[in-house]
Write a structure and sequence with these properties.
alpha/beta, six-stranded parallel sheet
């Protein structure tokens, strides 16, 4: 696929699809406060490079799921202010997705200026299943631009107007973030350095079955934590108390265990877990063997013996992919396992890729330096689909345009 380097952008209007979908909370004065600006910071290099090259940079992005209706609490206005701080240059916020306000703002731009359009999902055509509706919105977005740069990795697995349809109208290229993400995942999917260890967590095993199936022929070891581990334990014949369990997936997991054994791949599940009856840490907490979880107790984190076991595999790896926390890390009482595994990965000299979503959020929430990992993805769903081996529409359209 083409990149920004393939276009002469000085004096040109460049529409950039960024991923600025950040969490917000209400401030004491009623304002909306950004609680994690990771995705905004990840968008800065491409925007800055285009502006420095003399392009007129028009940024479009989404926030939340407004379902085609303007919702003040999902406006990108606070994001515009933070983006300006990070860029060190003004960012004009345009309270419209398309139309006369956008056209006027773009017409008034000088070379190097940056504008941010309102939440593109305020227009229902953005996520419409009707291709004609999406194409109509894409045409309106494209009318104010000469080039299109796709830099929102977190949405490239979506068939949406500002992701795929605009790229069929304008000369299109991958931004620095999308290029970096694709290169990082290619490195772990195509001829990775060995030993190759994948750490999987999160709540539902159903979310990761496709990933496991695609990675089994490639990896040496799978370390399984989080809520999904209990379906693996149940598949091995163990009782899991009141822990999260997807009974309808047990047979599939049994099949994966058989497949892994035939391939010589180690699937390592917890040997001890931290249990309680409440997720908020308000009830008594204990550490028990993973094969002896008491009735009525929920497994909410991996235990210290599991941390030590996982760290042994992590310490000897040459390539590590981590996707999903080891427990309910948002509650301090159940964050120990996730923190310990993250620290072990961060300390490893291996090529390390953190697969976005909750894993990336955990790195920031727990205060672990992001620079200690080779790559932290900005796209949870997109990274999972890449690891599953799926074709991502937002990447395919860029390849088709090249």
């Amino acid at each position: 696929m083409k990149t920004v380097d393939d276009f002469a952008v000085a004096g040109q209007r460049v529409l950039v699809r960024s991923d600025l979908n950040v969490p917000l909370s209400d401030g004491p004065d009623g304002s909306r406060l950004i609680t994690d600006d990771g995705r905004i910071r990840a968008s800065v290099p491409t925007i800055e490079r285009l502006a420095a090259a003399g392009a007129k940079v028009i940024v479009t992005a989404h926030l939340g799921r407004p379902k085609g209706e303007p919702r003040p609490e999902l406006s990108l206005a606070p994001v515009a202010a933070r983006l300006a701080e990070l860029l060190g240059r003004p960012v004009e916020f345009v309270p419209a997705v398309t139309g006369p306000k956008v056209a006027a703002a773009v017409a008034a731009m000088n070379d190097g200026d940056v504008v941010l359009l309102e939440n593109v999902r305020f227009d229902g055509r953005e996520t419409s299943k009707d291709q004609a509706e999406r194409a109509a919105l894409a045409a309106e977005l494209a009318a104010n631009a000469d080039f299109f740069v796709s830099d929102g990795f977190g949405v490239v697995h979506r068939e949406q107007a500002s992701v795929t349809d605009v790229a069929r109208i304008l000369p299109a290229a991958a931004g620095d973030l999308v290029r970096t993400e694709v290169e990082a995942f290619n490195k772990v999917l195509v001829d990775p350095a060995r030993p190759y260890v994948v750490v999987l967590g999160g709540s539902k095993v159903s979310d990761k079955l496709g990933v496991i199936g695609n990675l089994l022929p490639r990896v040496d070891t799978l370390l399984i934590g989080g809520g999904m581990a209990f379906t693996f334990l149940a598949a091995q014949g163990h009782e899991v108390g009141d822990s999260l369990l997807e009974r309808d997936r047990i047979d599939e997991v049994k099949g994966l265990l058989v497949d892994a054994a035939a391939r010589g791949v180690d699937i390592v599940v917890p040997v001890d877990v931290v249990v309680s009856t409440e997720l908020d840490g308000s009830a008594p907490i204990a550490t028990v063997a993973a094969t002896a979880i008491p009735a009525g107790q929920k497994g909410l984190d991996i235990g210290p013996k599991t941390v030590e076991l996982f760290a042994t595999y992590i310490g000897s790896a040459a390539t590590i992919v981590w996707n999903g926390p080891m427990g309910v890390f948002e509650t301090p009482a159940f964050a120990t396992g996730t923190r310990a595994v993250a620290e072990a990965i961060a300390a490893s000299p291996a090529h390390t890729v953190v697969g976005g979503g909750d894993s990336a959020a955990a790195v920031r929430l727990l205060g672990i330096g992001e620079e200690r990992f080779s790559h932290i993805s900005t796209g949870g769903g997109a990274s999972l689909e890449l690891l599953e081996g799926k074709v991502l529409p937002g990447l395919q359209v860029l390849e088709d345009a090249s």
